[in-house]
Amino acid sequence: MATGTLTGQTIANTYKALLKITGADAGGTTLAADAVIVIEDGDGNPSSLSLSQQRATITLGSGAADDFIVDGTTFVVEGDNNRVGIGTNAPSESLTIAHSAADGDGGILIMNKATTIADDVFLGGIGFDSGVANIPSSVSEAGAAIVARSAVAHSSSAKGADLLFLTTAIADADDTSSHERMRIDSEGIIAIGTSDTVNLHSAYRALQIGGNAVLYANADTSASNTLKLAQNVREEATSGDFTYISTDEASVLQLENGGVSLRTAPSGTANATASMATVWSVTENGLVSKPLHPGFLAQPGSNQTNIAVGSPVVAVFGEVFDQGGRFSSNTFTAPVTGKYQLNAVMRLEQIPLDAAYIELKIKTSNRGFETYITPGSFDAVSAYWSMTASVLADMDINDTATIEIVQSDGTQQIDISTGSFFSGFLAC
pLDDT at position 251, please? Predict the structure, then answer.
């Protein structure tokens, strides 16, 4: 065994073996190949060794949990537990870092040491993977990773960066680059499923979903009373207009002051202004409005006199209102397939006693809905008579509905009065 003696202190009386090393001792005697460093006290028991200098103390511990220690808690290695502690002498995980949340003592800093950093340059990252098959050669090939990239050429006045979240797919082999799944860009915009956050910038910070959807509020940090989910449109920061992202339809769902509204626009050209129309809204009190929901009311502008006998006569109406723009030329056209409530109130004048019957029909593309009167049972010619009909009719898209009057036999003298009405709406 190679031994040494320290003079000027009492250590020589305490330790009988200060160092045991591999190799040869001072006398040239070759040590055993499996010889190791051993620190023993005066009784031959393993003991720790401290090496002190003005700025640091390094201790080689003798216990199971303190194999290598620098300045007490600065850096600790637990060989038996395979743990490393920084700022603590009791690491609880593979790497434990304790800090005081102060400048220069607050966590981990990963830096690209290059002196020049251009736009979109890798700044650093953390990867997560297993030891199965090839170990990833870079962070960007890890099974999952968090990566930072420069968002601008760096200088003392420009240090913008994006944070990327990467994962590999189930069927990806080893040595395959991970896929970007989410990005938080330098301006606070979050993109999921795409890296192009600039394409959907709006007046406010946004959550971007895929290539053409964005979720944002009307304020960045202050209290907000509006939240919008926009599909295929972005809200311009200066004008407040909506602009198409791609050539397709667009929609915006808006939550504001306790209410909800939905706006839509037909297909338009990318980068063109979209004309958004409110199609549905709910107030904070639960009141529902559907401004474009199909509904109409029509009334004759003048009497339709002496209608024909023996054949159907289409009643002529003028528009009172036409929500959805589907009533024209005395005809309602269904904009979508559904169930439509249709109503007719027809005021007929000068009904002759010699008519076999008078028929009122709500006629749709699918079928007719009729009601009848028999004037022969009247005591005298009726100056006016109101016939009514109401039905919940099934209509396919572009099916039509009209009102018909049929007089069977008798004198031609019936007038359709301006006191008549035709109405309807999409019920369900």
Answer: 96
Cβ atoms of residues 66 and 81 within 8 Å: no
HSE value, Cβ hemisphere, 13 Å, CA-based, for 412: 9
Low-confidence ranges of the chain (pLDDT < 70): 1-56, 61-66, 197-205, 219-224
Q: What are phi and psi of 141, to 5 degrees?
A: -105, 5
* CATH topology assigned to domain 295-426: Jelly Rolls (2.60.120)
Provide the sign of the torsion angle of the four alpha carbons 170, 172, 173, 179, taken in this order: negative
The confidence score (pLDDT) of residue 381 equals 78
Place of tokens 């620190």: 39
- Per the CB < 8 A criterion, the answer to whether 129 and 143 are in contact is yes
pLDDT score of 43? 64
Q: How far is CA 122 from CA 51, 110, 115, in A?
A: 40, 11, 13
Q: Which of 345, 347, 321, 329 is nearest to 425 (CA)?
A: 321
First to last CA, the chain: 98
Distances (CA, A) of 342 to 144, 171, 369, 392: 60, 57, 10, 6
| Residues 159-168 as b or e (16 or more Cβ within 10 Å = b) | eebbbbbbbb
The pLDDT of residue 223? 56
CATH 2.60.120.40, the chain: domain bounds = 295-426
Q: Give the pLDDT of residue 272.
A: 94
Name the pairing type of β-strands 400-408 and 122-128: unpaired
User: For strand 313-314 and strand 400-408, is the pairing parallel, antiparallel, or unpaired?
Assistant: antiparallel
pLDDT value of residue 55 = 61
Q: For 145-179, give the DSSP string.
A: EEEEEESS--BTTB--EEEEEEE--TTPPTT-PPE
147 in Cβ contact with 125 (< 8 Å): yes
Q: Which residue has the tokens 């009057």?
A: 405
Minimal CA–CA distance to 260: which of 304, 238, 309, 227? Answer: 227
Question: What six digits make up the tokens of 279?
Answer: 């199609």
Average pLDDT taken over every residue of the chain? 85
